[in-house]
């Protein structure tokens, strides 16, 4: 087919690009100003990265997010698999429950958590992965649900079991690889959500990378802006790069 | 249910039936326990406490206060900003979703989906700082616009005002609209356009008789989700305002931190419960519409 | 509106480097049902979509009656089309779907609903008028699609593999029903399918296509018994391919000398094409010329699959009562019952 320039698409993309990139590039220009020496430089970025808290909070947010992913997978994958296999009467109930966190504003959830969770829970930062799990639940559950719906789960499971695989082995070496697209989606989503979570974290008085940025802003606003730019632009470039480099699956599937 | 029919069969099935109650819940137990402890219990306690006076007796007082100043203004502002940001984002977002989904090559679609995901979710605090740098008093874009003779600070504009917050909200609302509305566009089948043409419908006929009616519920659903997202947003507004713009999430945060004191200890809980109710009014129809639309969206 | 005849003259269509249709010619007479049959990618669907106006043509013309419609947009063509599946509008009820074409032609509500109910009656779904399409089975949906395509009395009816998404039993019933309706309404019809049984069973004529070219168009009987090309011979029905030598227009198969008919080289190594029913199997008293591999019982007739001592697999079709003791391994003599044979190059 002839490659024509698609005018409506072009206009759409140009408008979107202006909308997204004008503020982003403006902010970037601002962040590389050096008020003391005048002109441009990476002073603010160097200052931010040199701060020892920078690495500390990145790592802290990183392992908390990794833990959230772990909690999500360990709890959800077997549960959703079982619901699909057993035709349990619980399925509509749990389907509904999993969507409930969408209804509750995070601020309200934070208040609820603060007044109800026992002290020994609130005293450890390990409460965060479980609370983040709740926040990610509507998306994670649905991603896995769709993934399992798209495969002949019963047949696959029976085949695995009939060749002598245990339940845990069936899930880990058969089901997860088959729905790896959905699992990867769940991991990416849960990780990203936990990494960027601010409201719940700050209202429960925990410090993570996002809350640290607001703390930095009080003493060096330019440094905080530099950090914000990094946390927006780096995932932006990284994820777009990965998307463009990954093989085009939909194109392969077409005959 | 089905096991009732099979009971007459092998003894194995009979014993399975005996343990029906236990085995039918057991595998879901870890999920139910964690969900119950970390979600159901906090929300139930929240609702319960919102009806408690300072002396732990039952009262409607917290709710009565919740609907007086400055909290009533907070609700009005929050609803207004959620409604406007959703409304302004919905149309361009829907149109963008349409052109991207129907005309974009698949690589473009996927990378845009990723970018939209980052914008709609990373949001919050970094977004606030980014806008400070772009259109703050000394912001780059502010200066560029001034150079062209447009002084955005000539009037009463500031990032911490209603208009300022609205502008920043649009930055995550628009990508969110593209994300939630795209599935509806994708599920419009080529066969429908072709069948309509074949039956004598012009492009306009097709859109008014088939296209729009099919997309309309999803459009409303997407709008409702945007409303809920704008209504609940906390981080951006918290970073940009300094207590000058009453918004319910900020007021709750202030009460929770003890930064703001109120004579009623459980006022924040009552505000939270009202917030949940308003959010539910948007999210529950959203979920119902999505479920209905799924009937024809499947494959 | 009465049905008209349809003519495609020298129609060509290319997609990039692929030629979907190459100087394609077709004539469908008034009230005739012509099937276009071929493997996927042969251009049959492109031909149908060009007739409907859903695809543009690079050159050539499409004529309905006396009128050249090549440049007329799809929505003004007055042709009814049934798609593979999922083409019903999910936001409309069954009756609204069926009445859609009449609504577009500004027929009053009363009249178009009356006509819709008539057609629903015809396709056997009179009680489903108020339902939505997701409440129907696949077969019912295609019946509604058929009613919808016929409701505005189109000049031409186009069927784009309308049965391919259905279960086997439903498929057979529905194809008979399509044929019955088509005959009673007298609508000129083009039917695209890749299923030869389907094409052969309900069509007046079948056009076999390959690589954008119409290989042969004829009645099912002629196609089966006198295929014009080797492609048609192989594609339609089961065909044995037996290697042999051609000398002076004669071929010797299983000891019998046959006259080679039609194309192929004049002499040398060739492949003879023989239908299973032209080969009979006899129990051999000695070595025979083949050995039975399997026998598959098909009711009145049975297929005997044999392997010649040279290694060629040969299928024979015989009345079942003759074949009871052809167990696997039985040594047999294969015999040819015709005097002419079609040959093709190796």
CATH architecture of the largest domain in chain A: Orthogonal Bundle
Mean pLDDT of chain B equals 83
CATH topology of the largest domain in chain B: the name is: MetI-like fold
Low-confidence stretches of chain A: 250-255
Number of domains of chain B: 2
Helical percent range of chain B? over 70%
Helix content of chain A: over 70%
Strand content of chain B: under 5%
Order of secondary-structure elements of chain B? HHHHHHHHHHHHHHH
Q: What is the number of strand segments of chain B?
A: 0
Annotated CATH homologous superfamily of the largest domain in chain B: MetI-like
The greatest interface here is: A-B, 85 and 84 residues
Q: Can you tell me the residue ranges of chain B where pLDDT is under 50 for at least 5 consecutive residues?
A: 1-19
Observed structural traits:
heterotrimer, B: 299 residues, mainly alpha, MetI-like fold, 2 domains, 15 helices, 0% strand, disordered N terminus, C: 346 residues, alpha+beta, OB fold (Dihydrolipoamide Acetyltransferase, E2P), five-stranded mixed β-barrel, 36% strand
Description:
- The complex is a heterotrimer of chains A (255), B (299) and C (346).
- Chain A has helices at 7-31, 43-50, 52-86, 90-103, 106-116, 119-122, 127-149, 153-162, 167-178, 180-196, 199-203, 209-219, 221-245, 249-253.
- Chain A is mainly α.
- Chain A is globular, with a radius of gyration of 23 Å.
- Mean pLDDT of chain A is 84; it is low at 250-255.
- Chain B folds into 2 domains: 12-49, no CATH class; 68-297, Orthogonal Bundle (MetI-like fold), CATH 1.10.3720.10.
- Chain B is built from 15 helices and no strands.
- The longest helix of chain B has 33 residues, at 71-103.
- Mean pLDDT of chain B is 83; it is low at 1-19.
- Chain C has 2 domains: 6-232, Rossmann fold (3-Layer(aba) Sandwich), CATH 3.40.50.300; 239-345, RNA polymerase II/Efflux pump adaptor protein, barrel-sandwich hybrid domain (OB fold (Dihydrolipoamide Acetyltransferase, E2P)).
- Chain C contains 8 helices and 20 strands.
- Chain C has helices spanning 44-52, 94-104, 109-122, 138-151, 168-185, 196-202, 220-225, 230-235, and strands at residues 6-15, 18-28, 33-37, 59-64, 67-68, 79-82, 156-160, 188-193, 205-210, 213-218, 240-247, 250-253, 256-261, 268-274, 279-283, 290-297, 301-308, 313-319, 331-336, 340-345.
- In chain C, helix 2 (94-104) crosses helix 3, helix 2 (94-104) runs parallel beside helix 4 (138-151) and helix 3 packs across helix 4.
- The longest helix of chain C is centred in the middle third of the chain and has 18 residues, at 168-185.
- Chains in contact: A-B, B-C.
- At the B-C interface, helix 11 and helix 12 of B face strand 6, helix 2 and helix 4 of C.
């Amino acid at each position: 087919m002839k490659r024509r320039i698609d005018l409506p698409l072009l206009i759409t993309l140009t408008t979107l690009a202006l909308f997204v990139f004008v503020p982003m590039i403006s902010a970037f220009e601002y962040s590389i100003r050096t008020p003391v020496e005048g002109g441009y430089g990476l002073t603010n970025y160097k200052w931010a990265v040199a701060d020892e808290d920078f690495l500390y909070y990145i790592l802290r947010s990183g392992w908390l997010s990794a833990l959230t992913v772990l909690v999500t997978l360990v709890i959800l994958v077997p549960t959703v698999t079982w619901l699909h296999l057993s035709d349990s009467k619980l399925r509509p109930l749990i389907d509904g429950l999993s969507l409930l966190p969408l209804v509750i504003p995070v601020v309200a959830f934070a208040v609820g958590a603060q007044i109800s969770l026992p002290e020994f829970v609130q005293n450890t930062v390990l409460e965060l992965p479980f609370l983040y799990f709740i926040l990610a639940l509507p998306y994670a559950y649905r991603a896995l649900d769709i993934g399992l719906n798209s495969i002949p789960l019963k047949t696959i499971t029976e085949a695995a079991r009939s060749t002598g695989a245990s339940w845990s082995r069936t899930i880990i070496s058969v089901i997860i690889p088959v729905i790896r697209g959905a699992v990867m989606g769940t991991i990416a989503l849960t990780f990203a959500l936990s990494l960027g979570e601010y409201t719940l974290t700050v209202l429960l008085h925990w410090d993570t990378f996002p809350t640290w940025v607001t703390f930095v802003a009080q003493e060096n606003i330019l440094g905080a802006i530099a950090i914000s730019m990094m946390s927006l632009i780096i995932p932006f470039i990284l994820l777009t790069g990965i998307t463009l480099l990954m093989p085009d699956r939909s194109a392969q599937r077409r005959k | 249910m089905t096991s009732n029919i099979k009971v007459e069969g092998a003894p194995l099935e009979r014993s399975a039936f005996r343990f029906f109650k236990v085995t039918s819940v057991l595998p879901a137990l870890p999920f139910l326990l964690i969900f119950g402890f970390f979600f159901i219990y906090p929300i139930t306690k929240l609702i319960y406490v919102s009806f408690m006076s300072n002396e732990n007796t039952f009262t409607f007082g917290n709710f009565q206060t919740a609907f007086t100043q400055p909290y009533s203004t907070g609700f009005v502002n929050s609803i207004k900003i959620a409604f406007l940001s959703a409304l302004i984002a919905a149309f361009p977002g829907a149109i963008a979703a349409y052109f991207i989904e129907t005309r974009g090559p698949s690589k473009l679609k996927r990378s845009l989906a990723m970018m939209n995901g980052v914008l709609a979710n990373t949001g919050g605090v970094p977004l606030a700082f980014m806008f400070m740098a772009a259109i703050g008093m000394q912001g780059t874009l502010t200066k560029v616009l001034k150079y062209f003779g447009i002084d955005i600070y000539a009037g009463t504009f500031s990032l911490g005002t209603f208009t300022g917050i609205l502008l920043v909200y649009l930055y995550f609302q628009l990508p969110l609209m593209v994300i939630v509305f795209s599935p509806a566009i994708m599920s419009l089948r080529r066969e429908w356009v072709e069948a309509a043409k074949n039956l004598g419908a012009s492009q306009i006929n097709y859109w008014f008789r088939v296209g729009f009616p099919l997309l309309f519920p999803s459009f409303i659903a997407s709008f409702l989700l945007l409303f809920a997202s704008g209504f609940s947003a906390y981080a951006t507004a918290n970073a940009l305002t300094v207590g000058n713009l009453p918004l319910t999430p900020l007021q709750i945060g202030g009460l929770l931190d003890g930064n703001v004191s109120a004579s009623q200890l459980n006022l924040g809980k009552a505000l939270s419960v009202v917030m949940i109710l308003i959010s539910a009014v948007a999210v529950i129809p959203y979920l119902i519409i999505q479920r209905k639309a799924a009937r024809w969206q499947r494959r | 509106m009465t049905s008209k005849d349809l003519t495609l003259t020298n129609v060509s269509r290319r997609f990039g480097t692929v030629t979907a249709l190459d100087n394609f010619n077709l004539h469908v007479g008034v009230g005739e049902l012509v099937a276009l049959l071929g493997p996927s990618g042969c251009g049959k669907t492109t031909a149908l979509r060009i007739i409907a106006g859903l695809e543009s043509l690079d050159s050539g013309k499409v004529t309905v009656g006396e009128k050249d419609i090549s440049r007329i947009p799809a929505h003004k063509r007055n042709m009814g089309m049934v798609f593979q599946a999922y083409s019903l509008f999910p936001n409309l009820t069954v009756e609204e779907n069926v009445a859609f074409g009449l609504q577009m032609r500004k027929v009053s509500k009363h009249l178009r609903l009356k006509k819709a109910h008539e057609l629903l009656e015809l396709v056997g779904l009179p009680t489903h008028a108020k339902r939505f399409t997701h409440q129907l089975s696949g077969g019912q949906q295609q019946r509604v699609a058929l009613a919808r395509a016929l409701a505005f009395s189109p000049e031409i009816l186009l069927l784009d593999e309308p049965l391919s998404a259905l279960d086997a039993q439903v498929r057979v019933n529905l194809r008979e029903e399509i044929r019955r309706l088509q005959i009673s309404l007298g609508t000129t019809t083009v039917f695209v399918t890749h299923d030869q049984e389907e094409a052969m069973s309900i069509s007046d004529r079948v056009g076999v296509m390959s690589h954008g070219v119409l290989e042969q168009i004829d009645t099912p009987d002629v196609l089966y018994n006198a295929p014009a090309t080797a492609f048609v011979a192989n594609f339609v029905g089961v065909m044995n391919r037996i290697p042999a030598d051609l000398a002076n227009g004669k071929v010797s198969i299983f000891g019998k000398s046959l006259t080679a008919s039609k194309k192929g080289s004049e002499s040398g190594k060739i492949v003879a094409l023989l239908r299973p029913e032209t080969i009979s199997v006899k129990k051999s008293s000695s070595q025979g010329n083949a050995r039975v591999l399997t026998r598959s019982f098909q009711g009145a007739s049975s297929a005997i699959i044999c392997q010649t001592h040279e290694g060629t697999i040969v299928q024979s079709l015989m009345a079942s009562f003759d074949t009871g003791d052809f167990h696997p391994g039985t040594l047999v003599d294969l015999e040819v019952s015709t005097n002419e044979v079609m040959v093709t190059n190796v």
